Amino acid sequence: MAKNPIIAAILSFLIPGLGEIYAGKTMMGIILVIIAIILTAAIYMVTFYAWIVYIIVWIYSIYDSYTTAKALE
User: Fold this and answer.
1) Which residue ranges traverse the bilayer (predicted)?
2) Where are the domains of the chain?
3) pLDDT of residue 27 exceeding 90
């Protein structure tokens, strides 16, 4: 089933991993959501450097959900 890559990217922008779930990569989406939750907690509890990792995961999630949905068009 075709998925809109723009919607997938927007969903991943809002919550990392949500676009992957929308695009059909459910397991990858769940993993990215869990990583985002853990990193968010780490940001508040441990160190500022967790932000760098979080941003990398966030950008990857947007890119991956877009390309996955684009491939399904």
Assistant:
1) 29-60
2) 5-72
3) yes
**Position 47, amino acid:** T
The Cα 2–Cα 24 span in angstroms is: 10
pTM recorded for the entire structure: 0.67
Structure tokens at 60: 């990857």
Nearest to 6 by CA among 68, 60, 54: 68
CA 57 to CA 54: how far, in whole Å? 5
Contact 28, 20 (CB under 8 A): yes
The pLDDT tens digits of the residues spanning 61-72 come to 889 888 988 888
- Integer Cα distance of 49 and 10 in angstroms: 25
CA torsion sign for 35, 38, 43, 49 is: negative
What are the Cα distances from residue 31, in Å, to 7, 17, 18?
20, 7, 10
